């Protein structure tokens, strides 16, 4: 049975459309008379991301909202203010058993504690000599740019000429051991116990991935990431229903060549259902750990990436309609502007029809809609019917052709319902186990659809405790606007906001998030490998009177990297986490390559130079002191 959608299709910040420039560009190139694609072709067609170099359409750069407008909005909305948000559940405040007792919350305005991130003896006190040597060698190799650039080719050559057994024998005790915790759930427990001894907890992450290659072939993709032993597809018939829905799904037209993205490889809807079981197992593991557990999921494991890109194009279309409707530039669309916009698509619509359409969006009867109202209430499920009306009775303008080309078909809406149902099942399991579910950022061409899905589930599951965390990439210039918009959305709709901040300059995003945490309306995972960002966060926490533990602020770094940051935080009572990836080695190899390539700047930067210096110092100390264990 199709799931009813109560979520708006474009919960993205205006400037955050820069995150979907390539998706918008591809969508802009689509013609309105694209032929539908059959079920088999939709499921088997190889996903090809759009070329990053293609310029965005001009409308993608318009900014129809600002944070100032949110604060000035009338208070008659349906949501509760952040200050009225419920207090965190007890599970949220319980630190891990192995974590040192957290200090009392500092008085607001007090200077932050000075943490020593440069003490190798303290940082590596739980590591063996073999661990230290392996870490040093692996990080040194990752600093070799030719190796990182050609990692894919080197691995393929090794597997071709040496065979998988020999190739994996070289990778398993080195790169795999450094960045992954094992191949099965049972394998990860030694790593979890090692982290707990340092006051650090685990974010459980099934990391099996597959390459999305840059050929123009439409051949059937290889098998999707496999399940651990014992995992099975849910016996609820969703796969059959989704396969039937796929018969009506439309073609996303040609893929631009030359870009390689790494995602879960889509095989069919049954494989997506099987991934639900895999992620449920990870959530179950996280639920058994002390304190609030975290599990990470990837949307590309739960739906067709091609569908995600089609959704992203539709989401961008909704924002473009808002920008076109706001003719006076006041960052809102009033009834007059809405009527003018509506008649650009359906010029013969009656006044009664237009008024009824506006009233269905203006629930507060304020006579105007800002970007949060607009994106909350314009729903993807309405797209097919409106597109058909435009085909039959609408104008033949660029706008109408663009709308028809980007609107999802009824089959695509059903597939999107199925994908939402899978993520909803994981959110339900996470809520039952007291686990935070972090939805990872992925390829920019379908990131808008991933953001949209995360917000839909946050509205449903974050009422008392922020269960669903979305990821915000702070290095993208639209991230602050996106963050402000989503926090305002949570306030209006009366749920608590969960966010993971990654990469980039954290100052504005971080301060805004910590203020929201202080007000009781949010929790944040600060996922940074930058020591300055961590020190800033610690200082801001002290200034606001937020305690190191139990206050809704978490720190996270990748397994095998930035150990000085994670272990120092954990040993000083902060809620510190490591991403703990696991999966069959053959399927985790793309993750290892991506980890090296996406973090090459981190690996080659000052933080890794410092970590390697600390590793050398600790190795030397143990050699000179005879402590080789």
UniProtKB/TrEMBL annotation:
* Compositionally biased intervals (Low complexity): 224-236
In terms of Gene3D superfamilies, this protein maps to:
3.20.20.220, EF-hand (1.10.238.10)
Q: Which intervals hold domain EF-hand?
A: 313-348
Q: Which reaction does it catalyse?
A: L-proline + a quinone = (S)-1-pyrroline-5-carboxylate + a quinol + H(+)
State a single Gene Ontology molecular function.
calcium ion binding
Task: Map out region (Disordered) in residue numbers.
Answer: 213-236
Q: What is its EC number?
A: 1.5.5.2
Example GO CC term: the record gives: mitochondrion
- Function as written in the Swiss-Prot or TrEMBL entry: Converts proline to delta-1-pyrroline-5-carboxylate.
The identity of this protein, by name, is Proline dehydrogenase
In its UniProt entry, the species of origin is given as: Raphidocelis subcapitata
């Amino acid at each position: 049975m199709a799931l009813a959608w109560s979520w708006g299709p474009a919960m993205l910040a205006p400037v955050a459309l820069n995150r979907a420039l390539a998706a918008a560009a591809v969508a802009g190139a689509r013609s309105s008379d694209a032929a539908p694609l059959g079920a088999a072709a939709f499921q088997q067609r190889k996903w090809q991301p759009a070329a990053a170099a293609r310029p965005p359409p001009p409308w993608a750069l318009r900014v129809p909202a600002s944070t100032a407008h949110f604060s000035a909005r009338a208070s008659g909305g349906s949501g509760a203010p952040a200050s009225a948000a419920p207090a965190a559940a007890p599970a949220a405040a319980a630190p891990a058993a192995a974590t040192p007792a957290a200090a009392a919350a500092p008085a607001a305005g007090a200077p932050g504690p000075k943490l020593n991130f440069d003490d190798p003896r303290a940082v590596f006190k739980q590591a063996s000599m073999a661990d230290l040597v392996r870490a040093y060698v692996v990080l040194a190799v990752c600093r070799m740019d030719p190796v990182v650039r050609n990692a894919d080719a080197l691995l393929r050559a090794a597997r071709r000429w040496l065979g998988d057994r020999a190739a994996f024998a070289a990778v398993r005790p080195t790169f795999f051991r450094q960045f992954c915790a094992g191949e099965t759930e049972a394998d990860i427990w030694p790593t979890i116990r090692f982290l707990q001894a340092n006051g650090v907890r685990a974010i459980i992450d099934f990391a099996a991935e597959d390459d999305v290659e840059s050929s123009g072939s439409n051949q059937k993709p290889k098998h999707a990431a496999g399940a651990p032993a014992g995992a099975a597809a849910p016996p609820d018939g969703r796969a059959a229903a989704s396969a039937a829905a796929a018969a009506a799904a439309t073609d996303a037209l040609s893929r631009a060549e030359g870009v390689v993205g790494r995602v879960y490889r889509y095989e069919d809807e049954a494989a997506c259902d099987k991934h639900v079981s895999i992620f449920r197992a990870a959530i179950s593991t996280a639920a058994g750990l002390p304190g609030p557990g975290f599990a990470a999921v990837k949307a590309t494991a739960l739906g067709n990436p091609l569908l995600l890109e089609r959704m992203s194009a539709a989401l961008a279309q909704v924002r473009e309609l808002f920008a076109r409707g706001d003719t006076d530039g006041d960052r809102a669309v009033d009834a007059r502007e809405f009527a003018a916009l509506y008649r650009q698509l359906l010029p013969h619509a009656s006044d009664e029809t237009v008024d009824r359409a506006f009233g269905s969006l203006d629930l507060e009867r304020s006579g105007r809609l800002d970007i949060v109202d607009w994106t909350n209430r314009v729903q993807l499920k309405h797209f097919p019917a409106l597109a058909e009306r435009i085909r039959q009775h609408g104008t033949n303008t660029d706008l109408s052709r663009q709308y028809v080309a980007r609107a999802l078909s009824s089959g695509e809406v059903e597939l999107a319902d199925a994908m939402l149902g899978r993520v909803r099942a994981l959110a339900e399991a996470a809520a039952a186990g007291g686990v935070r579910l972090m939805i990872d950022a992925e390829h920019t061409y379908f990131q808008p659809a991933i953001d949209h899905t995360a917000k839909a589930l946050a509205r449903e599951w974050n009422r008392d405790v922020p269960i669903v965390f979305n990821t915000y990439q702070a290095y993208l210039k639209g991230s602050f606007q996106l963050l402000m918009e989503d926090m305002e959305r949570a306030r209006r709709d009366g749920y608590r906001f969960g966010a993971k901040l990654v990469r980039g300059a954290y100052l504005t995003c971080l301060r805004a998030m910590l203020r929201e945490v202080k007000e009781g309306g949010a929790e944040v995972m600060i996922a940074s490998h930058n020591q300055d960002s961590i020190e800033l966060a610690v200082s801001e926490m002290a200034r606001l009177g937020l305690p190191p533990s139990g206050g809704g602020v978490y720190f996270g770094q990748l397994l095998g990297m930035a150990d000085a940051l994670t272990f120092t935080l954990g040993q000083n009572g902060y809620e510190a986490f490591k991403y703990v990836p696991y999966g069959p080695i053959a399927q985790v190899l793309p993750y290892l390559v991506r980890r090296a390539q996406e973090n090459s700047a981190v690996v080659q930067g000052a933080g890794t130079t410092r970590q390697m210096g600390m590793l050398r110092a600790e190795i030397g100390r143990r050699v000179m002191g005879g402590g080789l264990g």
